[in-house]
Amino acid sequence: MKLSTRLTKIAEQIPAGSRLADIGSDHALLPVFAVRQGWVTQAIAGEVNQGPLDAAQRQVNEAGLGQVIQPRLGNGLAVLEPGEVDVITIAGMGGALIVTILSEGISKLAGVSRLILQPNVGEEFVRRWLLEHDWFLSSEQILEEDGRTYEILTADRIDDAAERNNELYRERTLTVSQVEDIFLSADHLLQFGPYLLNQPEPVFIEKWQQEIGKLEKVAASVGLSETDEARLKVAALQQQIKLVKEVVTCLQKDKQ
Ligand code: SAM
Questions:
Q1: For the chain, which ranges sit under pLDDT 50?
Q2: pTM for the model
Q3: Taking the CB of the first residue and of the last residue of the chain, which one, N or C, has fewer CB atoms within 10 A?
Q4: For 5-167, CATH number?
Q5: Atom 8 in ligand 1: which residue has the minimum CA distance?
Q6: Which residue, judged by its Cα, is nearest atom 24 of ligand 1?
């Protein structure tokens, strides 16, 4: 079984000896890989749809791992009993859906010590949820595969999560030149990612360059309307574009 780089990097975040729940598991590729690597002792592959659940069951049977991995049908964390797993992975969905799954299943997070989340879009929502629920964002990764960019957010339940998050999201400045600084608030750090901003990789810069293009297209399209609401929206988008451009320019200078 050849696992994608994205799923491999997610699996690598699972501490050895974990009991895992992979929610939205589809073909159960991630739990099968993690068990084979010896990182996971027991796993649950949660799926809300029957088709992917059947695919998960087939994959588990073919791998001969029916004693270790249980595919379960259900919405989000409803497939879990409290205390049943230590680690939860949720990958390949939008950030808003990941947040809904975590919020609706919050009682099932008792006993869970690590969340490994890979939103396809809307990473900011996920970081904000983690911050508001005292999960310490312990690492961020970014990668490009098959022309798409993915971020992997790992969060740990630790006693001093609030203090460490305060430190992580403390406002800071990026120095553009001797005369100019960019002020980055906690909101900006939630948007860009505090670790990703600290060590900007080319793929991170590329992602935000593409984002500028997308925002410009949205602004042009909204700008076709002449309502007050549209004008306000365009002004907000232009401010956002300006910030992203400044950050990207600054990070590129840093790299030179
Ligand atoms: N996690 C795999 C990955 O990253 O490659 C599969 C991602 S696939 C695009 C998303 C899967 O999540 C689908 O199989 C879908 O049925 C499932 N899904 C969507 N909403 C869900 C929910 N609320 N609870 C459980 N599974 C869900």
A1: none
A2: 0.95
A3: C
A4: 3.40.50.150
A5: 92
A6: 76
